[in-house]
Specification:
single chain, 359 residues, alpha+beta, 5-stranded mixed β-sheet, 11 helices, 13 strands, 28% helix, binds adenosine-5'-diphosphate, binds manganese (II) ion, Glutamine synthetase, ligase
């Protein structure tokens, strides 16, 4: 495959981007499909929109997104959040949507709905989440970007937070994504190059309640969309390369109001027993293919049993050293895989801490 035919010609596009739009706006409706990916399509609005409530529902062919059968394929898009669009700029917007079936029930892959209810029911706990999204860049040949065509790069060691040629791959995409997140108002907390070459991490948060899932999904959308222009593929696979190469996770940092107050360590420790009891239920929603990643090596715990520790990066859950020292703060659930759904993760954490939804 010739690379030049698949990389979009952004420079030519620039000429058209600043053409006046005669008062019309473009709204990019974005949703999560049945394969843990994002999809989107564009709608023209006849005026500027500043409140998600002004936006109409829309629909799409669910059978083309693994979300509905072909003989009953309409799935409805209900706008839940709007963000400024860093690609089209101006008054154009990105619209995050929930998916609903024709009978008025949430689509099977609409994990946001229950998550939002759990957050609402426990809003007085003021739950904060900060997620560390690891991911890997792939070339069009499916190999990690910048890796030699044959064989492997030098062993892991110089790449984590690496600086310099041969130590870091594709920083331009990472920078572009960072700017796009800031422009869109996504609460990106930082980025770093990861242990495996061509693997990176960005953090989102701390965000309260349902906001985390919304922001993280928008950050994922922006990453896929930015990488498109560079002809690079983003994978959230938890173990993209077998063997002595680090997998990719989605470390989930959690705190409640009680945990952040003086003496909050007690509240953190009280949750550890609850997490232990529901280890299997958590693992079930912590991503596909996580067993290949959670081997007990490469800074992971074994998937079979729960353990926690202070400053222990080989534990299922870590309490950061500075939190133990301060006697308050947050804990880090290190089990989720990079491809897990943030609504499912934050939802089950809430359920385990505070109980499920009433029927
Ligand atoms: P690590 O040392 O595990 O690599 P990072 O710095 O990558 O940690 O990520 C830690 C994340 O924890 C931050 O990005 C932030 O979003 C989140 N965080 C910080 N304080 C809190 C808190 N009180 N509650 C929840 N999340 C928090
Ligand atoms: Mn059509
Ligand atoms: Mn990190
Ligand atoms: Mn990391
Ligand atoms: Mn971490």
């Amino acid at each position: 495959m010739a690379e030049s035919t698949t990389i979009s010609n952004t420079e030519n596009l620039m000429k058209y981007l600043d053409l006046p739009q005669r008062g019309f706006c473009m709204a990019e409706y974005i949703w999560i499909d049945g394969t843990n990916g994002v999809r989107s399509k564009t709608k023209t609005l006849d005026k500027k929109c500043t409140d998600v409530k002004e936006l109409s529902e829309w629909n799409f062919d669910g059978s083309s997104c693994d979300q509905a059968p072909g003989d009953n394929s309409d799935v409805y898009l209900r706008p839940v959040r709007i963000f400024p669009d860093p690609f089209r700029r101006g008054d154009n917007i990105l619209v995050l949507c929930e998916c609903w079936d024709h009978d008025g029930s949430p689509n099977k892959f609409n994990y946001r709905h229950d998550c939002a209810r759990l957050m609402e029911a426990n809003a007085k706990q003021e739950p904060w989440f900060g997620l560390e999204q690891e991911y890997t860049l792939l070339g069009l040949d499916g190999r990690p970007y910048g890796w030699p065509k044959q064989g492997f790069p030098a062993p892991q060691g110089p790449y984590y937070c690496g600086v310099g040629t041969g130590k870091v791959y594709c920083r331009d995409i990472v920078e572009a994504h960072y700017k796009a997140c800031l422009y869109a108002g996504v609460k990106i907390a930082g980025v770093n190059a990861e242990v495996m070459p061509a693997q990176w991490e960005f953090q989102v948060g701390p965000c309260e309640g349902i906001d985390l899932g919304d922001q993280l999904w928008m950050a994922r959308f922006l990453l896929h969309r930015v990488a498109e222009e560079f002809g690079v593929v983003i994978t959230f696979s938890p173990k993209p390369i077998p063997g002595d190469w680090n997998g990719a996770g989605l470390h989930t940092n959690v705190s409640t109001k009680d945990m952040r107050e003086d003496g909050g360590l007690k509240a953190i420790e009280a949750v550890m027993g609850k997490l232990e009891k529901r280890h299997v239920e958590h693992i079930a929603v912590y991503g596909e293919g996580n067993a290949e990643r959670m081997t007990g090596q490469h800074e992971t715990a074994s998937m079979d049993k729960f353990n926690w520790g202070i400053a222990d990066r080989g534990a299922s859950v870590r309490i950061p050293r500075q939190c133990a020292a301060a006697g308050k703060g947050y804990f880090e659930d290190r089990r989720p895989a990079s491809n897990a759904d943030p609504y499912q993760i934050t939802g089950i954490v809430m359920e385990t801490m505070f109980g499920g939804l009433p029927d």
